[in-house]
Design a protein that fits this description.
Number of helices: 3
Radius of gyration: 16 Å
Helix content: 10-25%
Largest sheet: 8 strands, mixed
Distance between the termini: 33 Å
């Protein structure tokens, strides 16, 4: 029932808050994907939460507009349909995901249509996804 799901979400929230996790609200976009509010070097944006993406990935136009400088690497990214895009490696000086702050976050830049929060940053920051309450929880590796 929805009452038991709400109670479970409240228990998860309390448990994680006591362990230093930041709660970031997610919303379902028009395409059905979960999105979180973000800020890249002082510019507001939205990131799609994509645990299936190996990388946190910014579209070239986002990276350019937000002052993320990147350099080519020898890897390509499969954007679906057997279409490979060359990747650039870049660093975001200040990346905020909701209230969660990261400095000098490594990102990849490619010709993609959406900015993705991938499994690299999700796993390094102990992500917990609570779909019942549409919340993403993150915690820095050095906090307990």
């Amino acid at each position: 029932t929805s009452g038991s799901a709400q109670l479970a979400s409240e228990r998860i929230a309390a448990f994680l808050a006591n362990r230093g996790f930041a709660r970031i609200p997610m919303r379902r976009g028009a395409n059905g994907r979960y999105e979180v509010p973000a800020n890249i070097n002082g510019h507001a944006t939205t990131l799609v939460v994509d645990s299936g993406s190996s990388f946190t990935l910014l579209a070239r136009h986002t990276a350019g507009a937000d002052g993320v400088f990147s350099a080519p690497v020898r890897f390509a990214y499969n954007t679906g349909g057997n279409h490979l895009e060359p990747l650039n490696l870049g660093t975001v000086r200040q990346l905020s995901i909701g209230s969660f702050q990261l400095e000098n976050a490594d990102v990849n830049v490619a010709n993609v249509t959406a900015d993705l929060l991938g499994i690299d940053e999700l796993s390094m920051n102990f992500a917990v996804l609570d779909f019942a309450s549409s919340a993403l929880y993150l915690r820095h590796p050095d906090r307990r």
